[in-house]
Amino acid sequence: MREGKLAMRRMTAWALAFFVASPLLLAQQQSGPPPRPLHKVGDHWTPYDPPREFPPDVQVYIIQPGDTLWALAERFLGNPYLWPQLWEQNQYIRDAHWIYPGDPLVIGPKAAEAPPTAPPAPAPAPATPAAPAPVAPPPGLMEPSPVGEAELLPLGSEDDIHCFVYLDTDGEDLPLAIVSAERIGYQARFSTGDIVFINAGEAQGVKAGDEFFVVEPGQRIRHPATGAVLGRVVHYLGHLRVICTQEHSSTAEIMAACDAIPLGAKLKPFEAIPIPMAPRTAVASRCELPSGKARGFIVYSKDNVESLGQDHLVLVDLGEADEVQPGSFLTIYRENPVPGLPRLVLGQGAALTTGPHWATVKLLTTDGPVYLGDRVEVQ
Q1: Is the residue at 77 inside a domain?
Q2: Cβ burial, residue 377 (10 Å; 0-12/13-18/19+)
Q3: Per residue in 101-151, pLDDT tens?
Q4: Statement to judge: residues 245 and 203 lie in one domain
Q5: Residue 257 and residue 286 in one domain
Q6: DSSP 201
Q7: Which of 145, 244, 246, 260 could form a disulfide with 189 if both were Cys (CB 3.0 to 4.6 A apart)?
Q8: SS3 (DSSP) at 217
Q9: Residues 39-67 pLDDT 10s
Q10: Same domain, 301 and 232
Q11: Which range of residues forms the domain containing residue 43?
């Protein structure tokens, strides 16, 4: 009986410790450990090598305690979702979750200074009595508000960008790979915070601080109408950072994982991919004529889902050569099975990332199921 009570007390203490610690553990998993090592630059400590000289026409802000890229984007750019633009302009920051007080942050070009204006001359006395004040509109009627600029909205999320796919159309060579890990003795797949080893080092030009996407080549996909091979789908699994190098190998830490990362996963140089921002465009109506712009097909869906709907991610066979850029809107439609009748409009998607002849697209709105082989047209 006494042993049972003791076991129950231990179980209760363990459970309390877990629930107290779990928010901290979750935060660590989301942001990853801080970059190291720290070194002193001027009067502050930082793990980065921030620039010290800037062109005279750029606005530079010195990071303060408590700042985040999210909050600074809202302060300086008017929208917190524009934080990737700040990160892209300050590529010395290796991890967007960790910025350090005292480091400089390029905000963008300086605003043009307006020339000083002379004080206005006093207005002449009115020659006629002032007009009566305007009468308020009757209850239930509102005066139209002035039309301002359309609000920019994010068209996707970080996961939509960094955890989907791209299309390899050239048979790219990816010689770098994860070949071992610290926990290889009892773990077959790896995730955020795990230490892994790469099959290249100083002799191959790899340096401490280098970052890579972790990718896994997948299936070859064919055009739904012609059957021609379009390329190979390459899945993003996460990204890692090299923490030290040897002559022909490197030690790295997985900074983020979209999925379990196996040994043999390939590496591709990391670059920040901003989330496209755009004002929402109206969905093409049933009675609207086609735009006459480039048309293509849905050729792949995330996880090979067959019946697609709102928020699903797909790959289409239109790209930069077809004037599709991140932020472009596409009408999703299907040809009418009765020849000569109008097309069936199914919804709208937005391009998130693009290549010469492909784009990843998020389905923003759908009216009924969407399938592989359905058509898209640039709006």
Answers
A1: yes
A2: buried
A3: 999 999 988 765 445 555 555 555 555 544 444 444 333 333 333 444 567
A4: yes
A5: no
A6: -
A7: 260
A8: strand
A9: 888 888 899 999 999 998 889 999 998 88
A10: no
A11: 39-109
